[in-house]
Every structure is written in C-alpha cells, then in structure tokens.
Prior knowledge:
The complex is a heterodimer.
Chain A: H1 2-13, E1 23-24, E2 38-44, E3 47-53, H2 62-66, H3 73-77, E4 89-92, E5 99-104, H4 122-134, E6 140-147, E7 151-157
Parallel strand pairs in A: 5-6
Antiparallel strand pairs in A: 2-3, 4-5, 6-7
Chain B: H1 2-7, H2 10-60, H3 70-81, E1 86-91, H4 113-119, E2 124-129, E3 140-146, E4 165-171, H5 173-223, H6 238-296, H7 301-328, E5 336-339, H8 340-350, E6 357-360, E7 366-369, H9 371-388, E8 393-399, E9 406-412, H10 446-456, E10 460-465, E11 471-478, H11 493-499
Parallel strand pairs in B: 6-8
Antiparallel strand pairs in B: 1-4, 2-3, 3-4, 5-7, 8-9, 9-11, 10-11
Helix pairs in contact in B: 2-3, 2-5, 5-6, 6-7, 7-10, 7-11, 8-9, 9-10, 9-11
Amino acid sequence: MAATAAAVIAAAAGCGVRPTSVLSAGSMPVADGRASTITVYLVKDRALYPAVRPGLPGHPYLALAQLGVPVTSEERRAGLYTDVRPQEISVTQDGPPGTLTVWVDDPGPRGLRPGPGSRWPRLALAQVACTAQAVPGVKGVLLEAPDEASGHDRVPLDCGDFADLR
Amino acid sequence: MRLLRRVTGLRIRLVAAFTVVALLASVLASGISYVLLRRVMLQRTQDAVLTQIRNTLAQQIPEQMPPDTELLIADQVQRVLSAPGRTVVAVPVPLDGSAPVPPPGSLDVPVSRDFARRATHGVVFQRIVVKSRPGLEGHPYLLVGARATGYSTTVDEPQRTTPPMVFVSVSLSREAADLRSLTRALVVADAAALLAALLLALLATRGVLRPVRRLGAAARALGDGRLSTRVRVRGHDELADLAHTYNHAAAALERTVTELRAMEAASRRFVADVSHELRTPLTSMIAMTDVLAEEAGDDGGAARLVAEETRRLGGLVEHLIEISRFDAGAAALVLDDVNVAEAVAGTLSARGWPGRVAVEGPADLFVRADPRRLDVIVANLVGNALKHGGPPVTLRFGPERRDEPGVVVTVADRGPGIPDDLLGVVFDRFVKAEAARSRSEGSGLGLSIAKENAVLHGGTLEAANGPDGGAVFTLWLPARHDDEDGDEDGGDGKGGADGSEDGEDA
C-alpha cells in the first residue's frame, strides 16, 4: 500500500512539462542564404561607378536602400564615395509596371532639385536612377520626398538622362 | 476482536494483495506510457521548432552580408519565424565576445546569461516553467537560442556585416493541455482497472474461501457433537482433497464414538442389571442371617459376622443401583420447601449421631430441595467425617449468595484432612484415602452419590482442608430451584433411604 501511494505521489509530481537545464541542440547553422549580387552606383572622380555588393534573399530592391548607407572602408580605399546623404531609403512598386517609387526622407531645403545648396545634386539623382535601373526589370524611377509646401516632392528619373556622368 | 479478525482475515488479505498488485501494474504501465508519450510529444515539438529556426537562419543569412542590413535580416527572420504562441527577438552579436541578452520583456520568459553565453556557441534550448509572472504561473515554454555561422565579414568593419542571433520562446501550453488530458484518461483507466481488480479479487476469493468456510462450519458442528456432519466434495483441487480428508476423519470419529458409547451403555446396563438381580436374593439373605444370628445367641460369632457382611453387601448394591440411576439419567428430584435445621436434626437423630456433631445455624432457614436427597448428602458428609476425620465434627449452615440466593452447609472435622493428591479426585468412584485399606467398611461410592445429588439440585459440593487442619466439605444449594414444576417421580425413594447410612470416603 505504501509503495503504491509513493508511486502515485511520484507520478502526480512528475506530471506535465518538466523544466530542463540548458541543453545543446547541435552546432550552429551555416549561413547559406542565396541571393544574387547587387549593383550600387557610387561616385568616383565625379562620375558614376558601378560597385558590386552581396545581396540579401527576399530583398530585390536592396541596392536602392544601400544607397543610404555609408560606403564600406574597402570602397573608400578604392576612391569611391556617394553623393547621397545617409538616410533611410525605401522602395515601393505602386506605379505602372517597371516603375519604382523611391522614398527618401531628407529632401533638404531646396527639395529634390539639383543646384547650389541642394542636398540632391545631379550625381545623387543619377546614382538613384542608375542603381534602380540596374535592377532587372526596372525601367524608370519616381523619387519622392516629403515636402512642407506641397506635401510630396516628386521627381521622375531615368538613367539615360545622366549618360554624361557615366 | 471480531472486527480485527475481519480486517486481518484471509479474504481481506487476498483481496488487498490482488488489488495492490493490479494497481501497481496499471500505475506502472500508465506511468511508463505517460513518460514515453510525453517524451515523444515534447521531442516532436522541440525538433520542429529547432529545425525551423535552423533552416530559417541558414536561408535568410547570406554568406556575405551587405553593410548595415542587420535590421533587415532581423525583420525578415522575425517575420518568417513568427507564429501564434511564439515570440522572436533578434539581437546584434557584440564583437567583444560577450553574451548578447535580449532586452527584458521582449520574450515571454527571461533569458539567463548562461543560456545566452551558450547560445553564442551553438543551438541551445531549455524548457522553462514560468514561476513568477502573474497570470502565467505554471505555463511551460521552450526557449531556443541560435546564431548562424559560416559567414564572412570585412576585416575593418565587422560590426556592419555581422548577422544577428535570434532567441525564440515557444509556448508549450498546448502540449501541457494534451498531457493533462492524457493524465485524466490514464487516471480514469487506472480507476477502472482498480475497480475491475477489486471485483475479480472478490469473486476469486469467494470461490476459494467458500469451501474453507464450509469446512470450518462442518468442523465446528463436529466439535459440537454432530458427528454425522459431512462436507460436499467438489472439484479436484487441494481444497477438495482437504474436504475428502475431513469426511474420512469425521466418519472414523463417528464410528469410534458410537462404538464407545455403545460399549459404555452396555457396561452400565450390565452393572444396573447385576445390582438389580443381586438385590432380591440379598434381601432374603439379610433377613435370614439376622434370624440366624439371633438364634445363635452368644455363641453365634460367625453368624453375626455373616449377617453384618451381608448387610454391607446389600448397602453396596443399593449404592450401585443409585449410581446406575444417575448414569442412566433416570434420577429425578422431588422438590419441597425444606427447613434446613429440621432436616439436619432429622438426619442426625435417625442415625443416632446427635451428641457427636455440633450443629450451628438459623432455625428458620428454608431451601427448595428434595428432602430425601438432602438427607443422603448430609448423612454421607457427616458419616464420612465421623468415620475418617477426628472429633469434634461441626456442621454449620446458613444463607449464602453466589450467582443467586442459596444455602450453604459446611461439615468440618479436626482429623488429618485429605491428602493433597486426593483433593482433586475425592468425589470419584471407589477412591479411598488409604490405598492399602483394600477391605474397607465403605462402598467407596458415598461421596460420589453426594456430589451427584448436589449437582442434580443445581448446587455444588467441594472438598478442602481447613486452615486448622481437618477436612472441610462445603455444600451449596440454590434456595429456589429453576424448574419448580420438577419431576413428580418418586421412584427412587427406596434406594436413597438405605444408601444414606454409610457415607464414607476419603
């Protein structure tokens, strides 16, 4: 009887999910994300220069977002720089097929028009246009930024317009 | 006592043993199946989660990361891994080798520093049961920590190209609920098994114990004297064998006892018959020898001896007839209200003893008794004291209550007393104090007859030695007799009248 009672109590105490210590479940997974490389147009000697960077799976328009980050030290050593100021750049595809809308959040005091004092010189606009059109299937770009006056500052861009900078 | 016997009885013990074994077996079986099922269930869940995390990390993290894309990867990983009951957090890996701990509250369970440290070297998991969070006490969670390896970073800007590591907490409440329902099912099954075992045990023990009970009842009946009791033999098992043996023993016993009874009855009948046959010629012989002794005058010493011995022989035969009546169960009481003082005085004067015995007792004491038998008892006791004890002989009587009101009569003498080895058998037949005195004056039956008469009244007769020496015989008779209606049979009046003369024993 005592043995039975002990067994019952032990069974009752061992019911449910029991906590464990920290257990190993094998080695670390090996990074194996497959993505084709992307082409980001940087600037070298006041001209556009296509730099190649690794891509990310599931991010086809990563190249445009990469325009908003500083160049890598390796690229800097190679004399490359970017005219696009560091900022968050996002991409949507809500226009006609083949046209991307690129959103930037730093239009500067003069908006997206190139000129003295503008934060978007021609080279920067060329970087955006050509980087976008380097993505397979993209034919045109609509650059948009918030504008205090009109709400949206919108500039259509085409890499072909900047052939003199290549 | 009866309850104790019930509790420790064979049936209870058998049923308890049977039930305990069954319960132990079923609890063991369900415990093992529970543990196995739980292991399989949790293993499956863990494997699924671990595999998904491993695959997600492998697929979402490229060999080489574009700079500053850690947040993108973290978002992507969180999106892929998110599911109901899960929280996913991706944290950057510090490059100084320390363990990254996710901010508190970002997961359902806190991540210990040890867990985080080990997670930087491999995939680790831990099951945690929440204890301290209100509303979630007892909720089990699976915590997994992992990071990818095999990627390459740039030498001088590794922080920009290092993928984050992920921590995932998975609620195991569904598994816990499944286990609870499994427990319930097992408890119900065990209870059913217990009940079934109990029923089966009761049935089995009944089958086993019924023959044992029957044997016990039969043995009791045999002990009570019903020698014809037999048990039915059924089957061919050990119990049937036992019943068979019992029947044999009972039959043998019955046969032997019947034979013995027949032999005893025959011998008693023989004694009674012989006594009756002797009585008639002896009566004539007594009369004749008395006449012969008278006619012989002073010279008839031999004739007087013959007459005396013939009278003694007659007394012995009367005693034998009296004893035979007791043995045959033919002795009957003729009850009357007897004044004890008068009865004692009558007995003593009839035998010429008044001056030799000191009598003490109240004059108005009555007892319900057969006067003739009371006379026999008193005469035997007093005669015995006068012949074998030393003077003075005292007779005391008075009321004495034992279980009921009664009268006690004590006869004491100052003689040598009764030898210790004879105290227990002094009322047996033909027991005499001096074994060498083979030819005694008494018949050796007087005290036996006195005792039988006392018992016939529902009283007692005891022999003892007094503190001052001498034998003390104590007669106790109930004042009121149980069966007052009594027997109206006065048939043994004659035997007692003569037998009273010589009570001598011890």
